[in-house]
Write a structure and sequence with these properties.
The chain has 138 residues and is mainly beta. Strands 1, 3, 4, 5, 6, 7 and 9 form a 7-stranded antiparallel sheet that branches. It has a two-stranded antiparallel ribbon with strand order 2-8.
C-alpha cells in the first residue's frame, strides 16, 4: 500500500531494485488477450538521478469481454508491440480502433520495466465485491 492513495486501492505496485546500466527487463503479458489502448505519457525521471528519463506508458489488456488488466508506468514498448502500433508520439494515445488490437499470448514481452516499478490492476466487470467499500468511510 502507498500512503499517497486512499485504501482500499484498486491496483498494486510492482517494484524492483535500482538497476545499473540500461533498462533491459520486460514486463510480460499475464494471460492471453488483446492490447486495446496505449497512452504514451510524459517521460518519467528517476528519483535517484534526474538525468535518467524513460517513457511512461499505460497499457490496457482485454482478456475477455469483461476481464481486463492495466499496466501503468511501464517503459519502452517491446518490439512486437511497437511494430503493430507504430510510433505513438509522447502525450498521445493509440486505440485498437485505429487498427486491429495487438494479440498477445501469456508470457510475451509487453514493455520494459521502466524506472523502479509499475502499477498493475485487474478488473472483472462481472464481479461486485460486497462490503469491499464502505461509503460512510469516505
Amino acid at each position: 500500500m502507498s500512503s499517497s492513495h486512499v485504501t482500499p486501492t484498486d491496483h498494486l505496485y510492482v517494484y524492483r531494485n535500482i538497476w545499473e546500466g540500461e533498462d533491459t527487463e520486460y514486463v510480460l503479458a499475464p494471460a492471453d488477450g488483446w492490447i486495446t489502448s496505449i497512452s504514451n505519457n510524459e517521460e518519467r525521471t528517476a528519483r535517484w538521478d534526474s538525468s535518467i528519463t524513460v517513457p511512461d506508458q499505460r497499457i490496457v489488456f482485454m482478456h475477455t469481454c469483461t476481464f481486463f488488466t492495466i499496466f501503468i508506468h511501464v517503459g519502452e514498448l517491446a518490439p512486437g508491440v511497437a511494430t503493430h502500433t507504430g510510433e505513438i508520439p509522447q502525450g498521445t494515445k493509440w486505440f485498437s480502433t485505429r487498427s486491429a488490437p495487438v494479440l498477445v499470448k501469456a508470457g510475451e514481452p509487453i514493455a520494459k520495466m521502466g524506472l523502479t516499478g509499475f502499477d498493475w490492476s485487474v478488473h472483472d466487470t462481472d464481479t461486485i465485491l460486497s462490503g469491499f467499500v464502505i461509503p460512510n468511510h469516505y
